[in-house]
């Protein structure tokens, strides 16, 4: 009797972990991506140019933010969206490498950004699968 209760509690804890982890990580990931837009300050741009550059740099953050909001209810959307974002970023890095020549830091960028996106996407898909 006691073992069945412990299994139920650990199952509930595991379900909460799988539910909350991708959501929290996706918000932290969006904040991490938004930090990269801060490089527009100090470039000698006017206020209007700075605002425009800030908005342009944050387009992926805005899109992923909307997808995180949708993913809060529909995990499969988050899973597919983050995995596709990771693939899209790798393609962008490859295009940059072909145009400008390969640099080692491009590989580290791809691992950092795409790896995190893939991990979050997989967690969303695991939660979606557990719900089914």
Count up the domains. 1
User: Using only CA atoms, what is the Rg?
Assistant: 19 Å
Oligomeric organization of the protein chains: single chain
Average pLDDT reading: 87
Task: Give the number of helices.
Answer: 5
Q: What is the CA–CA distance across the termini? A: 27 Å
Major sheet characteristics: none
Strand proportion, as a percent range, falls in: under 5%
- SS class: mainly alpha
Give the topology string: H per helix, E per strand: HHHHH
pLDDT < 50 runs, ≥5 residues: none
Number of strands: 0
Key attributes of the depicted protein:
mainly alpha
What's the topology here?
Layout: H1 2-35, H2 47-57, H3 59-71, H4 75-100, H5 104-131
Describe this structure in words.
With 132 residues, the protein is mainly α. The protein has one domain. It has five helices and no strands. Helix 1 runs antiparallel to helix 5. The two termini are 27 Å apart.
Describe this structure in a few short sentences:
The protein has 132 residues and is mostly helical.
């Amino acid at each position: 009797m006691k073992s069945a209760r412990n299994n139920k509690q650990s199952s509930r804890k595991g379900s909460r972990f799988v539910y909350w982890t991708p959501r929290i990580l996706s918000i932290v990931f969006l904040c991490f991506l938004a930090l990269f837009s801060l490089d527009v300050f100090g470039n000698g741009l006017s206020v209007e140019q700075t605002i425009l550059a800030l908005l342009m740099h944050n387009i992926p953050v805005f899109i992923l933010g909307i997808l995180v909001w949708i993913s809060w209810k529909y995990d499969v959307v988050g899973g597919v969206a983050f995995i596709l974002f990771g693939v899209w970023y790798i393609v962008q890095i490859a295009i940059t490498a072909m145009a400008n020549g390969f640099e080692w830091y491009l590989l580290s960028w791809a691992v950092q950004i795409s790896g995190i996106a893939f991990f979050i996407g997989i967690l969303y898909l695991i939660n979606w699968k557990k719900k089914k």
